[in-house]
């Protein structure tokens, strides 16, 4: 079995790390460069950096900040927010990113996934999907930082982007985001079993047991969390030791 990955996420707004609940009520969580350096030291497997208002504010991701973070870490680094072209990705990779995450721009123009995979390789292209379970039970893809519902159903959209060349899916359950009540196990597990590419579970981590739950039956290839790491609720070394003791294949 492939090693399961633990991934802290830096949601960036106005140059600071922030965290909310269900995508709203943001509060400050610290300096992104300092946090990134700490996570790399503590043994995080990767780092995700999302400029969460870049799309809404119709601007590019903060390249200088990406550069500052990249200088401090020695682990794979994924950057997202406001990316809509090959040129945008070139700039971010040049600044030190290893992978890019696209979301709204992929929904708006799905060919972008093909273009980026062709230019930089599938391993570089992460498609982030913000999914909300509606009252009728359907899982609907949302864009613009979770503000706008689309006509796309989550599983079928993930399948399409895999076919277009995406190398990984970052699946955030909007219903679970920031609640600390556990990951969206059923939806994530369904997606992981359907796709051939890795799926990162995001939204809802609150305890070490939640990570065990999502990994135990191979419902996700990686698990991403933010506030529990930012506010020192669960130290990464402690989480990894906990998982290792329970026979989850993890990099110690």
Number of domains: 1
Total number of β-strand segments? 12
Assign the CATH superfamily.
Aldolase class I
Return the string of H and E elements.
Answer: EEEHEHEHEHHEEEHEHEHEHH
Q: pLDDT average, as an integer? A: 92
Q: Rg to the nearest angstrom? A: 16 Å
**Euclidean distance between termini CA atoms:** 15 Å
> Structural class from helices and strands?
alpha/beta
Which topology does CATH recognise? TIM Barrel
CATH class placement: Alpha Beta
Secondary structure tally, helices: 10
Poorly predicted spans: none
Strand content: 25-35%
Roughly what percent helix? 25-40%
CATH architecture call: Alpha-Beta Barrel
Please provide a brief summary of the model.
The chain has one domain (5-245): Aldolase class I (TIM Barrel, Alpha-Beta Barrel), CATH 3.20.20. It has ten helices and twelve strands. It has helices at 32-42, 63-72, 86-95, 104-108, 111-120, 154-164, 185-194, 208-216, 227-230, 236-245, and strands at 5-13, 16-21, 24-30, 47-51, 77-80, 99-102, 125-133, 139-143, 148-153, 168-173, 199-202, 222-225.
Write the layout of secondary structure elements.
Blueprint lengths: L4 E9 L2 E6 L2 E7 L1 H11 L4 E5 L11 H10 L4 E4 L5 H10 L3 E4 L1 H5 L2 H10 L4 E9 L5 E5 L4 E6 H11 L3 E6 L11 H10 L4 E4 L5 H9 L5 E4 L1 H4 L5 H10 L7
Parallel strand pairs: 1-4, 1-12, 4-5, 5-6, 6-7, 7-10, 10-11, 11-12
Antiparallel strand pairs: 1-2, 2-3, 7-8, 8-9
